[in-house]
Write a structure and sequence with these properties.
Layout (H helix, E strand, L loop, with lengths): L1 H57 L7 H32 L8 H14 L1 H15 L8 E5 L7 E8 L3 E5 L5 E5 L5 E4 L5 E10 L4 H17 L12 E8 L3 E10 L4 H18 L18
Antiparallel strand pairs: 1-2, 1-5, 2-3, 3-4, 6-8, 7-8
């Protein structure tokens, strides 16, 4: 009787020991392998994006090429997708080692997928929007963009630092990092695609000699284009478009300069400083504010 009791007590322990040496060991190896492979994928993704950034920094171009921006975004997205696939496959293999019938989970998974489809519509929308952002090359790493998020929400402008299938991360001029789900972006204005434009409206008194002012502004544009520091940033000499608007006591003369993508802000600051100095030499004093139209990278 006692011997029989001892045998019954030892049998479950033997089964558990065998499971640990078999499926249990496989589960541990799968988890460790997934963790190791995820580190390799992350390292490889960082290595690829680092080489892309290094190539862009070593090139003679003052700005990143569109191809470089797109490759950087694609590398980040592929890294994200590879990690998701890795964890999903590992989870399925672990469940099979635990004795859970994976094929029997197809029907419940379908029901769960429908439920998640209704409950997680925002996530699905974000992922789909992120896919089209990358596939259509709407913007990429290093682009200066303005994101419109709907009525009542002020647009956000900054430099793209990260693009995934779900979110876009940009850094504003104040150093703030803004993370926006891709599905919430209603409109994207890319300020650094192909070329950009600095637009400056110069207010002058209504009684001023318009012809003399236009000649002075044209001379400022020629000097800026010939300046060794500004010339690489300009695609052509700044142009005086003429009188843009008339008011009771002043009129606005518009100056336009085509620049390299993302350089419109720097060029605009330089031109405003030169314009103010040139008009002071003619005895014209500008108002305290010198309005600048919204810069654009769209023709």
């Amino acid at each position: 009787m006692n011997n029989h009791c001892v045998i019954v007590a030892i049998a479950p322990l033997t089964d558990f020991s065998g499971w640990v040496r078999g499926n249990g060991l496989e589960i541990v190896l799968l988890v460790l392998g997934a963790l190791l492979l995820s580190r390799v994928i992350t390292w490889l993704g960082d290595r690829i994006t680092g080489r892309i950034d290094q190539a862009a920094a070593d090139s003679d171009a003052l700005v990143r090429s569109e191809a470089s921006k797109h490759r950087h975004a694609v590398a980040q997205v592929l890294t994200y997708v590879a990690l998701v696939l890795l964890y999903t496959i590992t989870a399925v293999l672990v469940l099979s080692r635990l004795g859970v019938p994976v094929t029997a989970l197809v029907a419940p998974a379908t029901v769960l997928g429908v439920a998640l489809g209704f409950g997680a519509q925002r996530v699905v929308q974000d992922v789909l929007a992120g896919f089209f952002v990358v596939a259509e090359r709407q913007y990429g790493y290093g682009d200066i963009v303005r994101l419109s998020l709907g009525a009542g929400i002020a647009p956000t402008t900054g430099t793209v630092e990260d693009v995934t299938l779900r979110v876009t991360q940009i850094r504003t001029v104040d150093g703030e990092v803004v993370i926006t789900p891709n599905g919430q972006i209603l409109q994207v204005t890319n300020l650094s695609r192909d070329w950009a434009r600095a637009v400056i409206d110069v207010p002058v008194p209504a009684g001023a000699d318009v012809g003399a002012v236009i000649d002075a502004l044209a001379e400022v544009g020629r000097e800026a284009y010939e300046d060794p520091d500004l010339h690489p940033l300009l695609l052509d000499a700044p142009t005086v478009m003429g009188v843009e608007s008339l008011e009771v006591d002043q009129l606005n003369i518009r100056v336009v300069a085509r620049t390299l993508p993302g350089k419109q802000f720097e060029v605009g600051r330089q031109l405003r400083s030169r314009i103010a100095a040139a008009l002071r030499q003619q005895g014209l004093h500008l108002p305290p504010q010198l309005d600048t139209a919204e810069p654009s990278g769209i023709s």
